[in-house]
Amino acid sequence: MPLRFLLRILAALAFAGLALAAVPANAQPVAHPVATLAGLDKITGRITRFDVYIDETVLFGALEITPRACYDRPSNDTLQRTSVFLEVDQRSLDGTAKRIFTGWMFADSPALSAVDHPVYDVWLIECKNSTNVPSPTQR
User: Fold this and answer.
1) DSSP secondary structure, 38-79, as one string
2) What percent of the chain has pLDDT over 70?
3) Do the beta carbons of residue 81 and residue 28 sit within 8 Å?
4) Alpha-carbon distances, residue 14 vs 7, 42, 68 (angstroms)
5) What pLDDT, in 10s, does the model give residues 31-56?
6) Residues in a beta bridge with 126
7) What is the DSSP letter of 113?
8) Which of 45, 49, 77, 115 has its CA at a distance of 20 to 30 angstroms from the CA of residue 83?
């Protein structure tokens, strides 16, 4: 009886190993040079959509937004498909800046890691390879 039980366990483990071998590994993320973000001014209710190059800083209201990386995964991947690493500073009237957000933001779940600001909301729309905005080297 113990031998039969052991053989069943080995057969089950072998079957599980074959099943796991048949599952494809998650696709590697693809880096993109442009992040498309959207921002909401809660006072006016105006939503602005803007493209930002990686490592370029843009001003949205009193916020300085700098994307450091923007990644995309295939649509069949079960992980968060589109993500950006952002640094967000709040610019004060005297010209000083205070970091209010550093971290990953996900297009599929914008509230998961959000910029906490009383006047502005910022979220990721997509990562892309090109935009009609001139690159920083062309300005």
Assistant:
1) EEEETTTTEEEEEEEETT--EEETTEEEEEEEEEE--TT-SS
2) 78
3) no
4) 10, 57, 44
5) 999 999 999 999 999 999 999 999 99
6) 36
7) T
8) 45
| Residues written for the chain | 139
Burial of 38 (0-12, 13-18, 19+ CB in 10 A): middle
Asked if residue 68 has pLDDT above 80, the reply is: yes
d(CA 83, CA 108): 9
Q: Which residues of 81-119 are buried (b: 16+ CB within 10 A; e: fewer)?
A: bbbbbbbbbbeeeeeeeeeebeeebbbeebeebebebee
For 87, the token pair is 């640094």
Phi, psi (rounded to 5 degrees) for 116: -95, 100
Element (H, E) at 88: strand 82-91
